[in-house]
Amino acid sequence: MRKKLVVGNWKMNLLRNEGISLVNDILKNISSDITVNIVLAPSFLHLYKVSKMTSDLTYVSTAAQDCSLNSNGSFTGEVSAKMIFSCGAEYVILGHSERRSNFQETSRELRTKTSEAISNNLNVIFCCGESIKQRKDNTYFDWIKSQISEGLFHLSSSDFANIVIAYEPIWAIGTGANANSKQAQEVHEFIRNLIEEEYDKNIADNTSILYGGSCNAANAIELFSEKDVDGGLIGGASLDCNEFISIINSF
Ligand code: PGA
């Protein structure tokens, strides 16, 4: 059975005290019988603290928003996968479109980062998604296929068990214009089929595929009701406790 996940990607938001108070509010408001796993992705600076605050709860874990290509050494400003794991995180988000576009992150680098993360015991939340032009030109399937095959298909079957995929159409991120549930389902099913072709049906059936891009309390129930949508990667709405809790309760 694949996991249902709701991931809060805080991006470069929340000072230390703001992050602490958001985590306290979330922990106060989630019921202990939830069937979904919650992952909080604060900045590197807050990762250790948030991991500590949530360490007693099996259904809450933490993620970094990126990791270095390199294992250790003279790479000023970088943070390695091993350091992330040592701070208590279980996941790392890789290949977010903001990193691909603002920091020119390539598929080749993402292959290395993915392997580096998995060999240091982290699960990877691997992001993919098309631009508005690719959606309009109808080239989005080819694009997503290339992002996934170039970034992930070097992995062995056993390593692929550590992968979660997040489909995040760029045109939906932070715009308020989410993909509708049919659009999301169409791409999620396509991704699951790609995994089955490359690996096998069992691996495809066990891979969680999340939707991201203006997912909020108003649209989560409909998006999560699709058979191949296993949860969400939430940006803006994860910074507001009530919104985030409503999304968690949308399953
Ligand atoms: P958004 O961001 O929910 O604010 O659209 C999602 C993301 O970028 O992960």
Helix content: 40-55%
- Please provide the count of β strands: 8
Ions, cofactors, ligands: which are bound? 2-phosphoglycolic acid
- Uncertain spans: none
Overall 3D shape: globular
Proportion of residues in β-strands? 15-25%
What does this structure look like?
The structure is a single chain. The protein has twelve helices and eight strands. It is of the alpha/beta class. An eight-stranded parallel barrel has the order 1-2-3-4-5-6-7-8, surrounded by five helices. 2-phosphoglycolic acid is lined by residues 9, 168, 173-174, 212-215, 233-237.
Ordered list of secondary-structure elements with their pairings:
Blueprint: E1 5-9, H1 16-29, E2 37-41, H2 44-54, E3 60-64, H3 81-86, E4 91-94, H4 97-102, H5 107-119, E5 123-128, H6 132-137, H7 140-152, H8 157-160, E6 163-167, H9 181-198, H10 201-206, E7 209-212, H11 220-224, E8 231-234, H12 241-248
Parallel strand pairs: 1-2, 1-8, 2-3, 3-4, 4-5, 5-6, 6-7, 7-8
Helix pairs in contact: 1-2, 1-12, 5-7, 7-9
The site of 2-phosphoglycolic acid has 13 residues, from strand 8.
